[in-house]
Structure to design on (253 residues):
């Protein structure tokens, strides 16, 4: 394995220096967390499935003109991505009431929303990723008004693409979260979709049965998380041949 240096380790992924300037290797772990990491477990094969699914979704977005950081998959657990400056926000798009929205507003889970709702959370695990408004974002300089206009436009384009894709395989896209990064080309800046798109970052329900096929299975002890993710991978035809591959990267300090 190529010698490389770890840049960052999060709850579900590890980032390493890439083989070329401006690139990063993103490694998907098997760790599962919920409720701001209060609940933890290791789900064998989860990282493999998320790597393949995120590759599939990011490639599709690139192909329809929605820019992402994804460059190529390297192996069962790693992908090469473009380095970018992450805006410190989680962008959440909701099509149906679920999770915290249902709790905050007293709306029954599963209720169709009158239109997609875009929300923002400030990325800080110690604070529990609190919900913020565009007023907070502008006041604290996390993003400009032009950035936010572009963020909303990107988020809604991702929603349109993913909603249709999911519907085609019998899945309802309840909600999802993405991160957005800035890349610079000379004096020109543009925004791209970053991080990952996988069942870890989406709420996915079977259209007919309402069965949950996302991390809520782990959050609420509804069954086997790997089985749920495997079902999503099978529907999209990206089921890896060796979903329990558990090789670990070699870290050179």
């Amino acid at each position: 394995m190529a010698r490389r240096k770890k840049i960052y380790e999060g709850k579900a992924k590890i980032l390493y220096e890439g083989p070329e300037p401006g690139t990063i290797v993103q490694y998907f772990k098997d760790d599962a967390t919920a409720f701001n990491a209060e609940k933890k477990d290791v789900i064998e094969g989860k990282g493999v499935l998320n790597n393949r699914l995120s590759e599939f979704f990011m490639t599709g977005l690139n192909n329809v003109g929605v820019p992402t950081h994804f460059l190529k998959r390297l192996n069962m657990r790693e992908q090469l991505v473009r380095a970018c400056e992450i805006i410190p926000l989680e962008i959440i798009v909701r099509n149906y009431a679920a999770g915290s929205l249902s709790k905050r507003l007293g709306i029954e889970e599963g209720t169709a929303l009158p239109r997609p709702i875009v929300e923002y959370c400030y990325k800080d695990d110690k604070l529990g990723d609190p919900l913020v408004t565009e007023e907070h974002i502008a006041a604290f300089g996390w993003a400009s008004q032009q950035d936010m206009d572009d963020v909303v436009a990107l988020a809604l384009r991702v929603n349109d693409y993913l909603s249709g894709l999911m519907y085609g395989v019998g899945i309802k896209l309840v909600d999802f979260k993405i991160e957005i990064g800035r890349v610079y080309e000379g004096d020109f800046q543009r925004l791209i979709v970053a991080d990952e798109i996988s069942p870890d970052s989406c709420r996915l329900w079977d259209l007919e049965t309402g069965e949950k096929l996302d991390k809520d299975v782990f959050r609420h002890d509804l069954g086997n998380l790997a089985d749920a993710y495997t079902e999503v991978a099978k529907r999209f035809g990206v089921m890896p041949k060796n979903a329990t591959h558990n090789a670990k990267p070699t870290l050179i300090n």
